[in-house]
Amino acid sequence: MIIRPEKHSDLGSIRSVHTVSFPDTNEARLVDELRTANRLSISLVAVKLHEVVGHVAFSPVIVHGAEGAGLGPVAVLPAYRRIGIGEQLIRKGLEACRKQGDGYVVVLGAPSYYSRFGFKSADSWELCYKNGYADAFQAMELVPGAIPAGGGVVDYAPEFTAVDRSPAG
Ligand SMILES: CC(C)(COP(=O)(O)OP(=O)(O)OC[C@H]1O[C@@H](n2cnc3c(N)ncnc32)[C@H](O)[C@@H]1OP(=O)(O)O)[C@@H](O)C(=O)NCCC(=O)NCCS
C-alpha cells in the first residue's frame, strides 16, 4: 500500500471513496469544490493494488489571523477499514501540514479516534467551531504557541458552508 498526493486520474475514485463512506454525496462534492477553489491544500490517496482505497483532505482554516489546516473529510473503503489505512493517511497528512508550514490543525470527529494523533479538545485553547460540536472539535499544535492566546471561532473555507456541511474529519 502506498500513500501519495492525488493525481488528476484519481478524481473519480476519490469521489467514489467518499460517496460509499458517507450517507450522501456532500463530502465527495466538498472535495471537488475545494479543489476547484484552490483550497484543497493537501489531498492524499491510499493505493492498494492500483486501486484508490482511501483519501484524506486538508484545507486552510484561520483564527484571529493565524492560519492552520482543517483535516477532513477522510474516508477508507469499507472492505479496507481497521487495518491502519486511515491512520497512515492522517499521519502522512499531518507530516505534509508540518512541511507546508501549518502551525496547527483542527478536526471535527470522534475524540476516541483522533486522540491517537495528538489531538485534544479545542476547548483547551478556547477554540470553537461556529455551529457548536464542542466535544467533537479538536486541535493540535504543530508549532508550539501557533494557536493565538484566547482562541476564538475557527473559520473554515467557504465551501464548507456553501451547503449544510460540517467539517467532519
Ligand atoms: C474513520 C475511517 C476513515 C477510519 O479508517 P480506518 O482505515 O478504518 O482507520 P484505522 O484502521 O486507522 O483505525 C481504525 C480504528 O478507528 C476506529 N474508528 C473508526 N471510526 C470511528 C469513529 N467514528 N469513532 C471512533 N472510532 C472510530 C475503529 O474503531 C478502529 O479502532 P481500533 O484501532 O481501536 O481498532 C473509516 O472508518 C471511514 O472511512 N469511516 C466512514 C467515513 C467517516 O466516518 N470518516 C471520518 C469521520 S467524518
UniProtKB/TrEMBL annotation:
InterPro entries: Acyl_CoA_acyltransferase, GNAT_dom. Coiled coil: none annotated. GO terms for molecular function: acyltransferase activity, transferring groups other than amino-acyl groups. Gene3D superfamilies: 3.40.630.30. Residues 1-144 form the N-acetyltransferase domain. This is N-acetyltransferase domain-containing protein.
